[in-house]
């Protein structure tokens, strides 16, 4: 998942104390990030890591962009 890779890279970068804006053209992926109840059960290990990275990075916002 691209969002996971972006958070991994950002968390180890020298910019990790800055604000991160993640843009995605997938409303489904953004709904999975924003609403725990919508997450697929078989991907919980991915979302656990995403949640952990979001807590460690801190200032992250997600935005939907159209194709």
Automatic annotation (TrEMBL):
UniProt protein name: RNase H type-1 domain-containing protein
One GO molecular-function entry: nucleic acid binding
Organism: Theobroma cacao
InterPro entries, per database record: RNaseH_sf
Domain of life: Eukaryota
């Amino acid at each position: 998942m691209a969002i996971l890779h972006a958070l991994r890279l950002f968390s180890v970068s020298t910019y990790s104390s800055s604000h991160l804006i993640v843009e995605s053209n997938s409303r489904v992926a953004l709904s999975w990030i924003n609403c725990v109840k919508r997450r697929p059960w078989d991907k919980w290990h991915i979302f656990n890591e995403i949640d952990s990275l979001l807590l460690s990075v801190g200032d992250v916002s997600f935005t939907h962009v159209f194709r």
